[in-house]
Amino acid sequence: MREKVILAREDVNARLEILKSFEPLIKKCIKYYVHDREYYSDAMQEGYYIILKCIYNYDFDKEYPFEGYVKSSLIFGIRNFAKKIKYNVSLDEQMSDEGGCLYDFLESDINVEEEYGHKDDIRRLKDAMDKLSDKQRKVIEEVYFKNKSMVEICKSRRCHYMAVTKMKDRALKKLREEMG
């Protein structure tokens, strides 16, 4: 088997041959651990993936035979796969004979249309801010985004209070015009 594994690392046909030889073991593990047949093909793919990992990760210096390494890897891998899918619940899954799904029972404070409109407003504000001069944009950012007072802005810029106030007013007027 050692030669097959070495060859399988380089040759696709050798890999396929090894995969085929362990297919019954994959099916047995699936039968034992995966109880929902809806996941059968996913579990098969997971088994193939585990064997391919074994081909590349097998250490020839160990005394443990390749077949044993694959078997234990498959058992633990398929069991972990089954644990993951055990907790999968679809929100669209029908809850009763009268209809209705889990999604219908969930409450939410989020209004999708409102959220989309909010994102659109933010994009429009960003576009409008890009049309301001650098000085105007910095004043708006400092006042509204960094919560600085007008006095702090005047001190940091070493300018008169009225100059900053007028700049802020012109910037707000321009923003209102741009945003409609």
UniProtKB/TrEMBL annotation:
Keywords annotated in UniProt: DNA-binding, Sigma factor, Transcription, Transcription regulation
A molecular function (GO) term: DNA binding
Gene Ontology terms: biological process: DNA-templated transcription initiation
Pfam families: Sigma70_r2 (PF04542), Sigma70_r4 (PF04545)
Superkingdom assignment: Bacteria
Span of domain RNA polymerase sigma-70 region: 20-82, 128-177
Gene3D superfamilies noted in UniProt: 1.10.1740.10, 1.20.140.160
Descriptive protein name: RNA polymerase sporulation-specific sigma factor
Phylogenetic placement of the source organism: Bacteria, Bacillati, Bacillota, Clostridia, Eubacteriales
